Amino acid sequence: MLTHKQLKARLLSDPVVRAEYERIEREEMPMLDAILKARAEAGLTQAQVAERMGTRAPAVARLESALVTGKPSPSLATLKKYAAALGKRVEVRFVP
User: What is this structure's pTM?
Assistant: First the structure.
């Protein structure tokens, strides 16, 4: 039986797995962190955000999960509704 730490080390020894893990850590986790921080700062639960978006809590949970997995990738319209439910707005920038 492997511990979590041992399993992670074994999986990350594969260059393909390591590259994807690093990509997620670099590109997607900061976005999820920002979204979850905004929800926490607003003091809202997933259910409360869902109500403000006109949807249900499982949809918000899937949205937050999708930001990590990229499957399915949420639309800009959905992200705008989520942001509006938090009293925020979405800003998209292209950076070098």
Answer: 0.67
